[in-house]
Amino acid sequence: MNAIRRAGVCGWPIAHSRSPLIHGYWLKRYGINGAYERFGVPPLAFAEFVASVGADGFVGFNVTVPHKETAYAACEKLSEAAQATGAVNTLWRDGAALSGDNTDVEGFLGSLDAEAPGWRDRVFRATVLGAGGAARAVVYGLKMRGVEEIVIVNRTKARAEALVARFGPTTRATAWGKLSAELPQTDLLINTTTLGMVGQPPLDFDLAPLKAKATVADIVYTPLATRLLEAARKRNLVTVGGLGMLLRQAAPGFALWFGRTPEITKELRKLAEADLRAGGSGR
Ligand code: ATR
């Protein structure tokens, strides 16, 4: 194997990924002789790309849109989070076996723990907006922490019902139009849709019926302060933005590939904030 360990992020398109900024910061901070690159890989080329992990110092990669489900299918070993969500965002070789994890789950939980300390003691019912890949990671994380009731609200109700079939009796699906009726019983509200992201339609609903002292999280990080978070702050609610999840989902991969558990420093957060303010949407 070469002296230089190489990792990266694989997606199609890939230009807006912030992962190189995050991993590049840690490589420099810890003086590691490694590289983290962007790999634009179209769907038909993914199988060949995956096969190259383990050769010539290529230690693994992060997976983003549209490859997370294909990466799941390609792995011979899967973490519990990957199995439960059917998606892989971090890939490496464990001996000969191609292995995958979905670190969005611990990224989301880690950001809640850090930015809404004690949340678990205050939350009985969580309401999750959206039923896509990000919602699967969020719902699984909440379920792992034993949240008693998880309501999934989605424009396409059939997708919310598919999540209920996956995650079982503590989850329930409801139609987008019924959201306001759920809010008075909601202790934790999480947006996992793309609504409110730069370049997407706004997330437009009245937050007024939401329970007093609820916590509000948005996994969108472009813009950093979404309208949902601003409305929640106006009511003095505890809020959790999407940047913490983005930074934290990166850490397990870095530890696996480069052998050091990295820190989410204030400096890294500032660097990422400046980069996000400078432009471009992304997830
Ligand atoms: P991700 O993997 O980032 O979660 P996704 O799987 O494409 O992305 O999911 C996007 C989510 O945003 C879905 O819940 C989607 O709702 P549908 O399942 O009905 O498509 C939601 N979403 C996107 N655009 C929306 C819109 N204009 N109105 C309401 N929900 C929207």
Q: Strands across the major sheet, in which order?
A: 2-1-3-5-6-4
Outline type: globular
Number of strands: 12
What's the main sheet like? Answer: 6 strands, mixed
Provide the gyration radius in Å: 19 Å
Distance between the termini: 33 Å
Order of helices and strands: EHEHEHEHEEHHEHEHEHEEHEHH
What is the CATH topology descriptor of the largest domain?
Rossmann fold
**Beta-strand percentage range:** 15-25%
Helix content: 25-40%
Average of per-residue pLDDT values: 96
- The CATH superfamily of the largest domain turns out to be NAD(P)-binding Rossmann-like Domain
Q: What is the name of the CATH class of the largest domain?
A: Alpha Beta
Any overview of this molecule?
The chain is α/β, with parallel strands linked by helices. It has two domains: 5-102 and 247-277, Rossmann fold; 106-241, NAD(P)-binding Rossmann-like Domain (Rossmann fold, 3-Layer(aba) Sandwich), CATH 3.40.50. It is 39% helix and 21% strand. It is built from twelve helices and twelve strands. The strands form two sheets. A six-stranded mixed β-sheet has the order 2-1-3-5-6-4, sandwiched between helices. α1 crosses α11 and α5 (104-115) packs across α11. The mean pLDDT is 96. It binds 2'-monophosphoadenosine-5'-diphosphate. 2'-monophosphoadenosine-5'-diphosphate (ATR) is lined by residues 130-135, 154-156, 159, 192-195, 201, 283.
Q: Helices, strands, pairings?
A:
Layout: E1 5-11, H1 19-29, E2 34-40, H2 46-51, E3 58-63, H3 68-74, E4 77-78, H4 80-85, E5 90-94, E6 97-101, H5 104-115, H6 119-122, E7 125-129, H7 133-144, E8 149-154, H8 157-167, E9 171-175, H9 179-182, E10 188-191, E11 215-218, H10 227-234, E12 238-240, H11 243-258, H12 266-277
Parallel strand pairs: 1-2, 1-3, 4-6, 7-8, 7-10, 8-9, 10-11, 11-12
Antiparallel strand pairs: 3-5, 5-6
Bound molecules: 2'-monophosphoadenosine-5'-diphosphate.
